[in-house]
Amino acid sequence: MAARTVNARARRAGLSRRAVAGAFLVLALGAGSAGAAAAEGAPGCMIVADVATGALIARKGACAERHSPASTFKVALSLIGFDRGILTGPHAPVWNPPADPGRVKTPTDPTSWLDLSVVWYSQHLVRELGAARYAEDVARLGYGNVDVSGDPGTGNGMERAWIDSSLRISPAEQVAFIAAMLRHELPVSDAAISGTRAIMPSFDAPGMVVRGKTGAAWHRDARGVAQPSDALAWFVGWAETDDGRTFAFARFAEGAAGGTPRPPIRLRADVLKRLPQLIGPGAE
Asked: 33, 68, 71, 117: which is the annotated catalytic residue?
């Protein structure tokens, strides 16, 4: 369905421009998704959409297939934490790490939580929420398959549902989620959105500032043993161009493409290189 048709129908229904953008983004991300995934068969995805208009700028690879979000779930956890009043600012609260004789850990605040991708801080936040609110809030946000039960029969959903476990989300859904957040369409407070934006890591690229979160996890075999040679990696976020436009993006890779060394850092570098070609000055 063309954008013109969506806009016309929305105007007749009395929908706002924001609602039109949201509706068109959902249609654009979902159009032909199963066929595209099967035809291209790529072990990854790069997808970019205009937040204001919902127009799809780029979509390459299997973007409809769901995967573990790994640390990109911190975006949703941040929104939930600020919305519930557990997180109160870029540097509050500061939590002390759990005792671990084998590793050196330091006190962490919301900014360093995202910047350093601190797993135990996520787990502490989930415990502060409690099991009921945790499940309720993920469902309320409509995040991926909203399954935070964890590994079957273990009851470990509060510790690792998002780390190669029950929670799954596709790159297309990641982009729709980011765009909905930026348009203030998610069922959270404006303060939760501004708090999350304030702590998101940022990176410079030609003609824009890119904000986003990496994520990585090792797939596990049938015995539950992590396989370092079989990894998944993400970089998810948005770009704010110098001329005032905003674009949501998701980049995903797995298998050999997602493996060592430092797969999310490589994906981030790839996105920072490719975004200016897609949406920067002079981009077609």
From this structure: 71
Provide the CATH number for the domain around residue 158. 3.40.710.10
pTM, whole model, 2 decimals?
Answer: 0.85
Residue 284 counted as domain residue:
no
165 catalytically annotated: no
Q: Indicate whether 109 belongs to any domain.
A: yes
CA 30 to chain centre: 17
Q: Residue 177 and residue 143: Cα distance in Å, rounded?
A: 7
pLDDT in tens, 119-171: 999 999 999 999 999 999 999 999 999 999 999 999 999 999 999 999 999 99
What residue spans of the chain are helical by DSSP H?
3-13, 17-30, 33-40, 74-83, 110-116, 119-129, 131-141, 157-160, 171-182, 190-199, 263-279
